[in-house]
Amino acid sequence: xxxxxxxxxxxxxxxxxxxxxxxxxxxxxxxxxxxxxxxxxxxxxxxxxxxxxxxxxxxxxxxxxxxxxxxxxxxxxxxxxxxxxxxxxxxxxxxxxxxxxxxxxxxxxxxxxxxxxxxxxxxxxxxxxxxxxxxxxxxxxxxxxxxxxxxxxxxxxxxxxxxxxxxxxxxxxxxxxxxxxxxxxxxxxxxxxxxxxxxxxxxxxxxxxxxxxxxxxxxxxxxxxxxxxxxxxxxxxxxxxxxxxxxxxxxxxxxxxxxxxxxxxxxxxxxxxxxxxxxxxxxxxxxxxxxxxxxxxxx
Length: 299
Description:
The protein is an all-alpha fold. Helices cover 71% and strands 1% of the residues.
């Protein structure tokens, strides 16, 4: 049971962590009261202080070290640091040999989860870039070649795109082997087609744009199908259905994509027409061009 003294001490510790006053926090945690023991033990049991420190990164390292010395879960520390994309802290913890065999996949999935929830694309990409180096430097050349590992990578890819972390998604697709997975078994087009419904549900238009650039018309056809017939991705639904704003945003995006594609096709048609105009009957070329221009302007 937490005493009133411990509760007051924890609240102050929590406030100092939120204010990034880590030198002061370190002194506060080390106070040894004969009546109640060390506050640091209370903070380890409570667990709420640790993610606040991990979010701050390396400046909180000494506090995190103290918490770990008193029994804080190292795995939880790694997950918190990865979720908040604190590469410097991840490296510092690996140097201290706090990691285990499970740490590599923990970091990968937690970083992707952070991307989904926080949308911090460049920071999440930094974690994945760090993993390609840390894989050999700290994790003995991790190899995720079984089915469970590949599913984990696909879920991570899905998560970063749900958070519209498209540069991270691009990095994952282009660095499968460097991340320790078997690229030959991954069919990115099929994977991407399978997650379109999820991205539509989330209104992740930036990620849909990214997949369209990669895989073209097939992505648009699935988006159209979801809009017309609804989504089958029940396990991502909250039970309240689509938010109307997201639905409208997706429809607006799809319309803009279709107009852009149609304009592109018209421009190609006009360019092709220009190469054969000498073989057309008199006046036909001008008539066709006028019609095409009218169609273009009407979009």
